[in-house]
Amino acid sequence: QVQLVESGGGLVQAGGSLRLSCAASGRTFSSNAMGWFRQAPGKEREFVATISWRSDYTYYADSVKGRFTISRDNAKNTGYLQMDSLKPEDTAVYYCAARATGVGSILGADFDSWGQGTRVTVSS
Description:
Elements lengths: L1 E6 L2 E4 L4 E9 L6 E7 L6 E6 L6 E3 L7 E6 L4 E6 L8 E8 L13 E2 L3 E6 L1
Parallel strand pairs: 2-11
Antiparallel strand pairs: 1-3, 3-8, 4-5, 4-9, 5-6, 7-8, 9-10, 9-11
């Protein structure tokens, strides 16, 4: 497994931006696909974005498409989620995840390593 630690969450006003980071250690992160998921209070965890190991494939949930950007720096063993034009409905705990293959996925069950989460609160 890969050990993952998210950071960068916080409180922001609607329309603002945040950049989440996901620092990886352990298994070779550079060969792993990565994903971001979120869980809002009282709701199930949902897919946000995923990226392949070479960054040649990305995919976003419709709710964040055009506002969020997933990226990674394999030399730094770090993944990122740039969140712009934030809305109150983006309020959630955000989790990064890694899977042993290099292909991205929208399914949480495909990922075998998870971080502890970072909280994002967007005020109206």
